[in-house]
Design a protein that fits this description.
By secondary structure, the protein is of the alpha/beta class. It has two domains: about 15-130 and about 275-305, 3-Layer(aba) Sandwich (Rossmann fold); about 135-275, NAD(P)-binding Rossmann-like Domain (Rossmann fold, 3-Layer(aba) Sandwich). Helix content is about 35%, strand content about 20%. The chain contains nine helices and 13 strands. The protein has helices at about 30-40, 55-65, 90-95, 135-145, 160-170, 185-200, 255-265, 270-285, 295-305, and strands at about 15-20, 45-50, 70, 85, 100-105, 110-115, 125-130, 155, 175-180, 205, 215-220, 245, 265-270. β9, α6 (about 185-200) and β10 form a beta-alpha-beta unit. α4 (about 135-145) packs across α5 (about 160-170). Bound molecules: 2'-monophosphoadenosine-5'-diphosphate. The site of 2'-monophosphoadenosine-5'-diphosphate has 17 residues, from α5.
């Protein structure tokens, strides 16, 4: 990449990281480090395997070290809602946190992103939780599946942190009907209640559709591991060519579920586009700069597809 400017790691290097479990196969470090390099920023992005019982300590540690920000992934996005000092509107609306920005209080009492503190030290540091997943998914559905959500019938598999944000975003985009299926039924009930309150015109069913669906989204973690069962019960709801199918998983690039959908003649996309767009928004939140989206996309493709 000709625009790349490498910067040496030194005492001024700013840090971001993703926390999750499993984390070893995350493509986020490749995407963000390529973007930092392209803009000549002396920043680095790391990945840490963190268990849920250690999440609070890990966030406090990053805060104490003066990290610029964090990403959270499976299984932390819901848990972190109660761990933030402040929730941005996006986290409140979409009900989960996938981006944290650390901010410092300056001597004149303004809260500013930590990157703006160069000479003076902040008096205090706070964590601010954002959600960029929901917008990332909507961008990717438009870009990768050419799918317009308004008036459509959507089957959403999964009601964890990602599933909840996606469900609310789909409702906000005026889908006509949303069908929620999840192993733990109570979570679908909670999402149904939130949608009824905020988007009363959207019909929410708590089972597979009796008739048809235009789009099926997998927001479960089923498919991350080779021997995982399919998130879709095909005995109850068989795949058809009329379905558009989106899997938020990007590694493997083709889950068994996506392979089955392709075989059934469905238009399909994996979660690379969602990862890209949520990451681009996170990059902007942390650095205040316009994300170099093509470079980020190429870094992801290289990392995930190897070309
Ligand atoms: P994320 O933040 O990525 O959404 P999460 O909150 O841990 O991560 O959610 C994981 C999702 O995958 C949930 O919908 C979960 O179902 P439960 O709500 O019942 O836990 C789903 N999931 C994970 N493992 C599963 C399995 N073995 N069978 C069925 N669903 C599973």
């Amino acid at each position: 990449m000709s625009q790349t400017v490498s910067t040496a790691i030194n005492a001024s290097t700013r840090l971001c990281a993703v926390l999750g479990s499993p984390i070893r196969h995350s493509a986020s470090p490749a995407m963000h480090n390529a973007a930092f390099a392209a803009l000549g920023l002396n920043w680095r992005y790391l990945a840490f395997e963190v268990q849920p019982e250690n999440l609070r300590a890990a966030i406090d540690g990053a805060k104490a070290f003066g990290f610029a920000g964090l990403n959270l992934t499976v299984p932390h996005k819901l848990l972190a809602m109660d761990m933030m000092d402040v929730l941005d509107e996006s986290a409140k609306v979409w009900g989960a946190v996938n981006v944290i920005r650390f901010e410092g209080r300056s001597t004149n009492s303004d809260w500013l992103p930590l990157r703006l503190f160069e000479k003076e030290s902040p008096i205090e540091i706070r964590s601010v939780g954002f959600n960029t997943d929901a917008d990332g998914l909507a961008c990717s559905l438009r870009e990768d599946l050419k799918f317009e959500l308004r008036g459509k019938r959507v089957l959403l598999l999964g009601a964890g942190g990602a599933g909840r944000s996606i469900a609310l975003k789909l409702a906000a985009e005026n889908v006509a009907q949303l069908f929620l299926v999840n192993r733990t039924f109570s979570k679908t009930l909670e999402i149904q209640a939130a949608i009824r309150k905020n988007f009363p015109s959207v019909h929410v069913g708590l089972d597979y559709p009796q008739t048809e669906a235009d789009l099926i989204v997998n927001a479960t973690s089923l498919g991350l591991h080779q021997d995982d069962a399919s998130p879709l019960n095909e005995q109850v709801f068989p795949l058809k060519p009329s379905h558009a199918v989106y899997d938020i998983i990007y590694r493997p690039a083709e889950t068994k579920f996506l392979a089955a959908a392709k075989k059934a003649g469905c238009k399909t996309a994996n979660g690379l586009g969602m990862l890209l767009h949520q990451g681009a928004k996170a990059f902007e939140i942390w650095t205040g700069k316009t994300p170099p989206i093509d470079i980020m996309r190429r870094a992801l493709e290289q990392n995930i597809y190897g070309h």
